[in-house]
Amino acid sequence: MSFGKPGSAAEVDRTIELTADGMSYGIDSLQVRAGETIRFVIENGGELNHDFTIGDQATQAEHRAKMTEMMASSSGMMDHDDANAVFLKPGETGELIWTFSKTGRFEFACNVPGHYEAGMHGPITVAEADVDT
């Protein structure tokens, strides 16, 4: 993926903890540096299924379409293993480790049908490696 790649636990530079509750992750935006490996720990503290996906707008739109198709074809079961996403049932906690490879503006989002549209997304700003975030 042009915006990064899956990272390894041994390379984690920092951890960002988020809680999905209602239609929010409890944050408005994220700032990281190019080359930084982030461990995202996401807890689903609500009563609805959620996912946490990172990517550019095209990646988010594609993932949202895939999730809508899965909901329609598999009785609501969300069974996917995308490297840039984690799916969480109520009460579950998941982890995603990602290395951001280039600067720019990307997005974190929940792509469960209707959640993105309800505002469950925000920008990820990836700055140059030598800029404080």
Count of DSSP strands: 9
Q: Count helical runs.
A: 1
- How much helix is in the residues? 10-25%
Q: Order of helices and strands, N to C?
A: EEEEEHEEEE
Instruction: Determine the strand fraction and express it as a percent band.
Output: 35-45%
Instruction: Identify the CATH architecture.
Output: Sandwich
In total, the number of domains comes to 1
- Using the alpha-carbon principal axes, give the shape: globular
Organism: Nitratireductor rhodophyticola
Keywords: Copper, Metal-binding
Domain Blue (type 1) copper: 18-126
Pfam families: Copper-bind
Structure characterization notes:
This protein has 133 residues and is mainly beta. The chain has a single domain, classed as Cupredoxins -  blue copper proteins (Immunoglobulin-like), CATH 2.60.40.420. Helix content is 13%, strand content 40%. The chain has one helix and nine strands; from the N terminus they run E-E-E-E-E-H-E-E-E-E. A five-stranded mixed beta sheet has the order 3-9-8-5-6, covered by helices on one side. A four-stranded mixed beta sheet has the order 1-7-4-2, with no helix packed on it. The longest helix is centred in the middle third of the chain and has 17 residues.
Q: What does the secondary structure layout of this molecule look like, with pairings?
A:
Blueprint: E1 4-6, E2 14-20, E3 30-33, E4 37-44, E5 50-55, H1 57-73, E6 85-88, E7 93-100, E8 104-109, E9 121-127
Parallel strand pairs: 2-4, 3-9
Antiparallel strand pairs: 1-7, 4-7, 5-6, 5-8, 8-9
Protein name: Cupredoxin family protein
Pfam families: Copper-bind
Keywords: Copper, Metal-binding
